[in-house]
Structures are given as C-alpha cells and as structure tokens.
Design a protein that fits this description.
Layout: H1 3-17, E1 23-25, H2 26-33, H3 35-40, E2 51-55, H4 60-69, E3 73-74, H5 76-81, E4 86-91, E5 94-100, E6 102-104, E7 108-110, H6 125-133, H7 140-155, H8 158-172, H9 176-194, H10 201-218, H11 223-231
Parallel strand pairs: 2-5
Antiparallel strand pairs: 1-2, 3-4, 4-5, 6-7
C-alpha cells in the first residue's frame, strides 16, 4: 500500500474512534477499490497525489482537530470562504481535502446520505465513478483512474454493478450538464484504453462504457433536464472548480 493511502486510512480510523464519519474519494478511494484490478492490469496502478475525504458539515470542528493531530495545518482563507462545504489542510507537501455534505467540483451532488453506504473506507462505487466522469478537463491520471473503475464495475457482483450504474444514470437524468460531461468522458476513456498497452483492457472498458452509456441515455429524464437540453452546450454547463 502506498504511503498516501496508508495515511488516509489512519486518519479515517482515528475519526471512527471519535465517532466522526470520514470516507475516501478521489485517488485514495480508487486505490482502495482497485486492489484486484491492479493485479490484473499493473500499469493502471498509481499512487494518489493527495488525500480527498468526505464528511458532514456538523463535524467540521472535530475534523479540524483530527487533522491537527496528524500535523496538518488548515488553509484558513480557503476554509473561511468555503465554510460548511469544504476544508483544506496542508502538511509539508501533502494536501488533505475534506468535502462536507456534497461533492462540488465541475458538477455538484449531495453525499450526506451516501456516507452510510459503500465500503468501510470509501463512498459507494457509483460516487467514485461519478467523480471521475464529471471532470470537464481530465488529466491523463483521471482517465487512468476511470478505466480502472470501469474494470471494477465489470468484475463487481451484480447488485454492486447495478447500483453503481443506476446511481450515475439517476443523477445524470436530473442534470443535462452532468450527463453531457459524462458522455464526453466515456468517449475519452474508451480512446485512452485503446492506446494502452495492457492486454484486453480496451475490450473490458468498452463493454462497461457501452452499458453505462445505454443506461444513462435511456433513463427517464426530469423536466429540468429537458428544459436545460434546449440550450445544450451553447451555454456553459459546468462550474470552474476551486482547487
């Protein structure tokens, strides 16, 4: 296990001991969810660059205390401006990012009800998949993580696979912009996997990407989705994330 993921687990374990719920997303969650994938496709493995966790806003004070116990110092201005939504801490070159109540980057959705689901240490697969699908300007590492997560979808038990795909489709059916971004990233990851040297990876990614696309496109759309679709991409459909 890489040092960043190990540190994230220590933080989450300390939080659990103090009855504070923290669960991983971002690169740490991908690392935890993709252990078996990395055995099949070693070149998909990468060490997370930072630590992203999710919690609830009412625990923000205790989260700051827990972070301080690991030597992290708060980014005071950022935390003030984003009070109740996001907290950022630094320890030397390590960044700890806490999303409170919701995930808000290029697109936004609530996480409060999701913190009680998923594995012991990560949010559910659907949320982790969506955090990579919602990126408007993906780095190569985003597509690498997305490919690994689609392999997880491929190899998961039926109920887990169905829940993850249905969750993405349900949220996308209420937000035209989110669905549009997801469609772009699905196309991107298929092209990325085709050029990757891992044997059979492109076939696996294409199968799950195709299924995901079909489910998302066929899911009944909300009225707000249909109204926003009229404007399409002529109007910006995403937010510029604050990093």
């Amino acid at each position: 296990m890489d040092t960043m993921t190990a540190l994230a687990l220590n933080i989450m374990q300390r939080a659990r001991a103090e009855n504070v719920v923290l669960k991983a997303l971002g690169g740490v969650a991908v690392s935890l969810l993709c252990t078996e994938v990395y055995e099949l496709y070693p070149n998909l493995r990468r060490a997370p660059a930072d630590i992203d966790l999710a919690g609830v806003s009412e625990d923000s004070g205790r989260i700051e205390t827990i972070a301080a116990g690991f030597g992290f110092k708060p980014c005071a201005e950022f935390n003030f401006v984003n009070s109740g939504e996001r907290m950022k801490f630094l320890r030397d070159e390590v960044r700890l990012d806490i999303f409170l109540d919701r995930f808000r980057m290029c697109h936004t959705w609530s996480l409060r009800d999701r913190l009680s689901e998923g594995s012991d240490w990560t949010l559910p697969l659907g949320d982790i998949l969506l955090t990579k699908l919602q990126v408007v300007r993906p780095a190569d590492t985003d597509l690498q993580d997305l490919a690994a997560l689609l392999v997880v979808v491929e190899t998961s038990a039926g109920a887990v696979q169905k829940e993850a795909i249905s969750y993405v489709a349900h949220l996308a059916s209420r937000d035209w912009g989110l669905q549009y971004t997801c469609a772009l990233r699905i196309s991107d990851v298929c092209r990325w996997a085709t050029g990757h040297k891992e044997r059979d990876l492109s076939d696996v990614v294409a199968r799950r990407a195709s299924l995901l696309s079909r489910v998302v496109e066929s899911w009944p759309k909300a009225l707000c989705w249909r109204l926003r679709a009229i404007l399409g991409s002529r109007l910006r459909w995403y937010a510029e994330p604050e990093t």
